Amino acid sequence: IMFDVYFNETVKLKKIRYHKECVGLSKNRFYYKNGSYSGSELMAGDWTEFYNTTTLLAASCTQGDTITATISNEVIFEQGKTYGLYLAIQAATPTNALNALYTSNDPTKGFRDTLISNDLMTIYHGRGTSDFLFDGLSAFSRQFEGELVVSRYDSIEWYENGNLIGTGSPSVTKTMTGDYTFVAEKYLACLLY
Known about the structure:
With 193 residues, this protein is mostly beta strands. It contains no helices and 16 strands. The chain is globular and about 55 Å long.
């Protein structure tokens, strides 16, 4: 699926949770681009890959099980900008025909209609894709079903020995000696079920 997200605040992408059909081995490749996906559906050079792994799900898993992809590459989405996301789930072998990302269709909605909106972001209806990268687009809108988990930069909290000493961007103005534990991120999730 390809879909657009508009960000009201600068955030760092931490995880993507999504529903995947079972069973078998699948290739999971995720991409983003500055600006809308529209016009770049077939242009691989417009996209930046930020996640690439192979997942094996046993035959006993329930269709639609939630998969969590932890994003280790730094992906920052800036305030006031729209980004296209492309989540591609491919069969690792021709016999794994059931490897797909669960999405749904609302026939009353079109491309770029709002799917969900909150204080952090607005996610829009997108376009379904086939098992081949940058090929085989659907003629109707699809909606992502899952979660984007992000950290919000303005909600960073700094602790010294368990005591809150500040919020916002990190700045240390005093010399510190001894052992200290710092907690520097508060996680936020945007649920899309």
